[in-house]
């Protein structure tokens, strides 16, 4: 009688062992013990092939992004394994969805998955059924633990307790934030530099580093640390929790509707109006840090009048007579635009002349257009606020249903949402004559004068900070010496 041929006889058996730091301390789970048990099982089953051992030491089962697990899965895909063995189901993963995905991969490559504690093999129907039942129970328990942790953390946050490391400008005392006066002054300087002086993240970080002002842990300031400071709601007294998903290796911000936000529960360093004004600028049109620090006056602002692409700086002329030019980036990099290049000195001269004309001819005929732009911007901002408020209210309804907040908290959130909706309707009804035309005119004149004066005495970088406060973009009209200057709303 012919003997059946096992097509997996030349393939390896993989033993997977994992332990997290918490498990080692709490349960005394040993990697050595796992290996001994798995190898003993192989001998008992008569599998005399030397197994491959994959060990992830100190990795949580929440994520499947583990070095040795990734190597194991790569060998599965390469068709090098016949079996994958673990001591317990949760060594591989605690999430049913992740388990099922891996098992599908194993089945696709004819690899059986064996857990010796639960006594099943996925090559059998009963083994697959048992696995799914056990996985469902494991995930149910994990979700219950997560909910209990969330409830405890929510109540702590609601009581004004700070749940993580204190931000710059504060210190932590008995899990509550207190203002650190010296650092608070630096926070206020950063907000003023960004809002009043028009400096960007890079310029602010450079200013602090040059002055020798250290960050919390005596590190140098960076673009990221400055931006985090400018967008942290703690400075206006608002505690925001559950903002970041830390369950994966790469931290990712959650949808805003999932955040837990509690107003007026922290000591204030920046008043709310200033904080909101900063957010409008942060979320508005962003200029690349490199453009802000560029030694060329119109870098990051100048646009091609032919195709709308940005104009980048370059050099032209002979070896001994080189000169700066602005050239359409679409023409330079893609060849898709036929716009010519312009001498940078000429374009910057036209810009200065355009500003002088704006200052000399500014009258009330321009103001209605500016007011309409302001109305559109205000309405857009309020609509965004309403959308956020609605999502936040939905989240509070869920929290109330779960018994995490009182009916008074829910009513307060609903009132806030109604106020935003009412404000939008009021702004939509605003007429041009309700704006202070004289004040708007003087404000534009003041900022234009500041720019013209700065061009005579300040560095290019300092002048550009003022320009970015007033001007959104500059369009160079095709084949002419005319430019269009667009003011910010």
TrEMBL record:
Which terms in the Gene Ontology molecular function aspect does this entry carry? DNA binding; DNA strand exchange activity
Q: Which residues form the Resolvase/invertase-type recombinase catalytic domain?
A: 12-160
- Asked if the Swiss-Prot or TrEMBL record annotates the protein with the keyword Chloroplast, the reply is no
Say which domain of life the source belongs to: Bacteria
According to the entry, every stretch annotated as the Recombinase domain falls at 167-288
What's the protein called, per UniProt?
Resolvase
Q: Where is the active site?
A: 20
For this chain's UniProt record, which GO biological process terms are given?
DNA integration
What UniProt keywords are attached to this protein's entry?
DNA integration, DNA recombination, DNA-binding
């Amino acid at each position: 009688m012919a003997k059946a041929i096992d097509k997996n006889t030349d393939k390896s058996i993989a033993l997977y062992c994992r332990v997290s730091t918490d498990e080692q301390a709490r349960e005394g789970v040993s990697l050595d013990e796992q290996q001994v048990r798995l190898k003993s099982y192989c001998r008992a089953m008569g599998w005399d092939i030397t197994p491959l051992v994959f060990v992830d030491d100190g990795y949580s089962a929440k994520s499947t992004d583990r070095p040795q697990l990734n190597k194991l899965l790569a060998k599965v895909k390469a068709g090098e394994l016949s079996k994958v063995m673990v001591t317990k189901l949760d060594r591989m993963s605690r999430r049913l969805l992740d388990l099922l995905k891996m098992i599908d991969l194993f089945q696709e490559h004819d690899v059986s998955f064996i857990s010796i504690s639960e006594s099943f093999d996925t090559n059998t129907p009963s083994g697959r059924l048992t696995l799914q039942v056990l996985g469902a129970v494991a995930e149910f328990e994990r979700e219950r633990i997560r909910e209990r942790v969330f409830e405890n953390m929510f109540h702590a946050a609601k009581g004004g307790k700070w749940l993580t490391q204190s931000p710059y400008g504060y210190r932590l005392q008995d899990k509550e934030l207190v203002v650190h006066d010296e650092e608070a002054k630096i926070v206020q300087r950063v907000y003023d530099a960004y809002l009043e002086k028009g400096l960007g993240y890079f310029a602010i970080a450079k200013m602090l580093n040059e002055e020798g002002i250290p960050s919390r842990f005596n590190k140098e300031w960076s673009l990221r640390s400055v931006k985090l400071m400018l967008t942290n709601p703690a400075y206006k007294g608002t505690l925001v929790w559950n903002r970041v998903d830390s369950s994966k290796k790469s931290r990712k911000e959650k949808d805003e509707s999932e955040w837990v936000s509690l107003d007026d529960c922290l000591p204030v360093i920046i008043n709310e109006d200033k904080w909101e004004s900063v957010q409008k600028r942060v979320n508005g049109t962003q200029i690349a840090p490199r453009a802000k620090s560029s030694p060329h006056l119109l870098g990051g602002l100048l646009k091609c009048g032919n195709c709308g692409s940005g104009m980048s700086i370059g050099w032209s002329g002979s070896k001994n007579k080189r000169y700066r030019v602005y050239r359409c980036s679409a023409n330079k990099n893609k060849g898709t635009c036929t716009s010519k290049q312009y001498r940078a000195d000429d374009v910057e001269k036209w810009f200065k002349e355009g500003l002088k004309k704006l200052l000399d001819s500014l009258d009330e005929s321009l103001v209605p257009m500016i007011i309409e732009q302001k109305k559109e911007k205000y309405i857009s901002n309020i609509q965004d606020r309403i959308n956020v408020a609605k999502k936040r209210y939905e989240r509070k309804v869920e929290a109330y249903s779960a018994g995490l907040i009182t009916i008074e908290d829910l009513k307060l959130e609903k009132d806030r949402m109604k106020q935003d909706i009412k404000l939008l309707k009021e702004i939509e009804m605003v007429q041009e004559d309700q704006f202070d035309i004289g004040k708007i005119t003087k404000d534009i004149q003041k900022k234009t004068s500041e720019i013209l004066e700065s061009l005579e005495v300040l560095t290019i970088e300092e002048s550009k900070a003022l320009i970015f406060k007033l001007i959104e973009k500059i369009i160079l009209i095709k084949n002419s010496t005319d430019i269009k200057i667009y003011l910010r709303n």
